[in-house]
Amino acid sequence: MIQEPRPHSIVFFGSGPFASSPFRALVARGWVRTLVTQPDRETGRGRRTRRTLIAALADEVSVPVLQPHRLRDPETQTALEKGRPELFVVASYGRILPQAVLDIPAAGCLNVHPSLLPRHRGPSPVAGAILAGDRETGVTIMLMAAKMDAGPILTQESAPLHGDDSTEVLTSRLSEQGAELLLGTLPAWLAGELSPRPQDESAATYTQLLTKEQGRLDWAKPAELLEREIRAFVPWPVAYTPWAEGVLRIFRATLISDRGTPDDRPGSIVRLEPNGIVVATGSGLLSLLEVQPQGGRRMAAAEFVRGHPAIRSAMLG
């Protein structure tokens, strides 16, 4: 019986939530020698040190962790070369790997990317697909190049977008799909059965790093776009709007079938419904379903209305 080729030594690069399922899948098979992830950061008012999600997972399963500040440093590259790793696997690492690092592993450096490349290259592909109103996205396994997300493709698999997908939910689903696709791709790649195909540069689109300022909703925009922004900005930066009692964060909303009237000012509260706060926009109405008042917790809109009756006549934004 001929056994499929298996990697003997993988260095895994990952930091964000999307990396969790591919990392777990490789660890479960005993293939990961080292994790490379972003350095610990101080967060919050107490400036507490916070490890990346993947570093915490590595700690649980006793996988050694490297957290270099610069991949170009000679000492970092020496550490990566130690033991002659067979393969590098990258998923949501957050930094571009220089050519000197890409050249280290004998079997190359593979990237698990949560989009159907060349669409949605860059740091926010999952949010980008939601913001664009795409009906499908997917996962790509590519051979890495020094240019961001531009390497040749080994395998791809599409996935539908659901109308209520947030970035958080879709990332989790694509992470699991990416792990399965990676496990199916590795033996074929190591056996020399895959021929990388170049990406179509003319079809490439790019996403930007999300900022906190992007979370502020502009009620003059159409309701359809605002609803997509709200889903795309969960879990971060979370959509928000100023109003008379501070800042209101918005986690879920839904489109209303009626379009309102020409007299409805964008940002005005049109009416209250049992489960939502109906807001006028530049085009159409949007019902807020789940919100978080300043200094409070996340809650259903009906609960918020009971504690903040001033919302009935408020102007948002």
What does this structure look like?
With 317 residues, the protein is α/β, with parallel strands linked by helices. The chain contains 8 helices and 15 strands. It has helices at 20-28, 53-60, 74-81, 99-102, 125-131, 167-190, 223-232, 301-307; strands at 10-14, 32-36, 41-43, 48-50, 65-66, 87-91, 109-113, 136-143, 153-160, 239-243, 246-256, 269-273, 276-280, 285-293, 299-300. The strands form 3 sheets. It has a 7-stranded mixed β-sheet. Helix 1 runs parallel beside helix 6 and helix 5 (125-131) runs antiparallel to helix 7 (223-232). The longest helix has 24 residues, at 167-190. It starts with 9 loop residues before the first strand and ends in a 10-residue tail after the last helix.
Blueprint (SSEs and pairs):
Blueprint lengths: L9 E5 L5 H9 L3 E5 L4 E3 L4 E3 L2 H8 L4 E2 L7 H8 L5 E5 L7 H4 L6 E5 L11 H7 L4 E8 L9 E8 L6 H24 L32 H10 L6 E5 L2 E11 L12 E5 L2 E5 L4 E9 L5 E2 H7 L10
Parallel strand pairs: 1-2, 1-6, 2-5, 6-7
Antiparallel strand pairs: 3-4, 7-8, 8-9, 10-11, 11-14, 12-13, 13-14, 14-15
Task: Give a short overview.
With 317 residues, this protein is α/β, with parallel strands linked by helices.
- Could you give the count of β-strands? 15
* Backbone shape: elongated
CATH superfamily of the largest domain: Formyl transferase, N-terminal domain
- What is the H/E string? EHEEEHEHEHEHEEHHEEEEEEH
Strand order of the largest sheet: 5-2-1-6-7-8-9
Mean pLDDT: 95
* Biggest β-sheet description: 7 strands, mixed
| Proportion of residues in extended strands | 25-35%
CATH topology of the largest domain: Rossmann fold
Uncertain runs with pLDDT below 50, 5 residues or more? none
- How many distinct folded domains? 2
In the CATH hierarchy, the architecture of the largest domain is 3-Layer(aba) Sandwich
Structural class: alpha/beta
End-to-end separation in angstroms reads 67 Å
